[in-house]
Amino acid sequence: xxxxxxxxxxxxxxxxxxxxxxxxxxxxxxxxxxxxxxxxxxxxxxxxxxxxxxxxxxxxxxxxxxxxxxxxxxxxxxxxxxxxxxxxxxxxxxxxxxxxxxxxxxxxxxxxxxxxxxxxxxxxxxxxxxxxxxxxxxxxxxxxxxxxxxxxxxxxxxxxxxxxxxxxxxxxxxxxxxxxxxxxxxxxxxxxxxxxxxxxxxxxxxxxxxxxxxxxxxxxxxxxxxxxxxxxxxxxxxxxxxxxxxxxxxxxxxxxxxxxxxxxxxxxxxxxxxxxxxxxxxxxxxxxxxxxxxxxxx
Length: 298
Prior knowledge:
The chain is mainly beta. Helix content is about 5%, strand content about 55%.
């Protein structure tokens, strides 16, 4: 995603970065690194002691179902120069136009909460930062999350779930980068995890404006065929989205994006569908709690 750089000067004045300069911590530069929007996650780590909040809405239409992704809440906190802690939660409100077509969702209106995901992102290496720049080597991070139940149904069906993601970003040019993610997800530590893969093309049009195109895909090797009890199959879900990000302030970034489903082989709604979505959100960086505490003590 777009990662604008802001230089903090005397008296807490700020400017957006000059695109001619590379990141250099000695120059007091702060990177607004957002994991929004889309399903892929960036490889950047929140700076030490920085706290960031990312939230947004998403409206989607599937065959017979309209859904509204209620405000996503993602908190990121830098605990080390190479480690951030994360906590994320969201939920979806669905309106089922044809409840009889999907036996798993018989109600016309139903709310689906997500799990409470807690974990960390660890930077493995970054050869693109500093005075020596190695654009041929992608910036790489490892993200580990634990999904905790928030409802009695989740606690009974699968008390614990987990996820491990390898996040890479290759800075091809000053204004163009390629991101690719690969992850595995377990439900109640099942022997066969689900697989997630994403590929994103990111363009930094200006120091404030970014453009992106992203494909995110899920694969479940032992999905349950709800139309045939006891039967399993390999489920494939392929999606594409695109949008823009805009930094209205060095600590605030807005985003808007749209997308659609390219393929879904679920038996009830199989094949290419006119599944579309529209999302918008905001990233707010509370850039240094220690500095805020220092100002409050004055």
